Each structure stands twice: as structure tokens, then as C-alpha cells.
Amino acid sequence: MDEASDEELMLRIAKGDQRAFRTLAPRYAVRAISLARGIVGNEADAEEIVQEALLRVWVNAPRWRPQAAFRTWFYRIVFNLSLNRRRRAPFLPLEAAGDPPDPAADASERIERNESDQMVAAAITALPGRQRAVIMLTYDEELTNAEAAMVLGTSVAGVESLLVRAKRTLREKLGPLLDKS
To answer: Residue 171 belongs to a domain with what CATH number?
Structure first.
């Protein structure tokens, strides 16, 4: 069953096939948690959002139609739930999560890399919501512009415009960091 397509699994899930659900859910859960965490800012909320999204997949499977790829549909659910959660409660800054130490790097390299990572994370966090989401969907989740457009409920041109504005803002904010490299 692991070789079954997402669409085949969804058809089985619509009939109440728990094995199909247990096969499909892990395919996207980790990446969905990453997407949700990037929007809401903390792991606990992100995990809860993905659980809710998976519950919605199970409940709404009989009504699902393969007009869009399952992945796009699922990420849209996660994206919407994340935005709803973000509106409801304040989020922790990405810096609060911290980074695990890298045993391969010496202390000064690690400090410099952490500072750079924090600057990039802060710059991405400071982006307006849709620009931050389009950066995450295209770079972190590796969605095509068309898939990102479906998740965001906009056109491909809208996604491209959001990417241009987001990249311009990041270049402005990260100029000193980019000059070092």
C-alpha cells in the first residue's frame, strides 16, 4: 500500500480504511509541522494544528475530490488552521526555539552561524504573513508556484509578485549579512 498514490489512498480513506490513513498521514505530517511552526512560531501549536488537519482529512475524505493534488489540499488546510491560530494567540519568536549545537563546528563558527540564522529567521518572521507563507511554501516545502498559488488562494502571478516583494525586503534587511559572504 506504500506505493499507492495519495489519490488512491484518499479514495480508500473515504471508505473508512484506517490502514490507508496510517500510510498517507506520515507522508506529509513532518513537513506540515514545519510549515505550521513557521507560521505560528512554536512546535506545540504546530503539532496541534497538524493533528487537527489530519482529523479534517479523515472526516472530510468522503467529500474530497481529486481536482487538486492531495498535498496542495492538505497544505491549504494546515495553512488556514495556522493563520487562524496565529490570529487567536501570540506566538513565540523563532529565536526562542534555539538551535541544537553542531559538534562539527568550533565555537566561533557556531556563534557566527547562529547569529546569521537568527538574523535570517527574524527577517523572515518580520515579513507580512502572505510573503512569509510564500517563502516557506516555495523554499521549505518546495511547492511549485502553481501549487503555492492554490494553497494561498491566489494566481501564479500573485505568488510571483509576493516572492519578488519578499526577496526584495529580505535583501534590504539582510544586506550586511549578504556582504560578508
So the answer is: 1.10.10.10
**Is the pTM above the cut of 0.70?**
no
Summarised one tens digit per residue, pLDDT across range 55-90 is: 999 998 888 887 878 898 899 999 999 988 887 755
- Whether residue 65 sits in one domain with residue 118: no
Q: Give the number of other CB atoms < 10 A from CB of residue 29.
A: 17
Task: Examine residue 98 and state whether it is found in any structural domain, yes or no.
Answer: no
The residue behind cell 535583501 is 171
How big is the CA angle at 125 (ends 45 and 177), to the nearest 5 degrees?
140
Taking only the tens place, the pLDDT of each residue in 85-120 is: 887 755 556 677 677 665 665 667 777 778 878 888
Of the chain, the end-to-end C-alpha distance in Å amounts to: 47
Contacts of 56 (CB under 8 A, 6+ apart): 77
Closest by CA to 70, choosing from 32, 38, 106, 109, is: 32
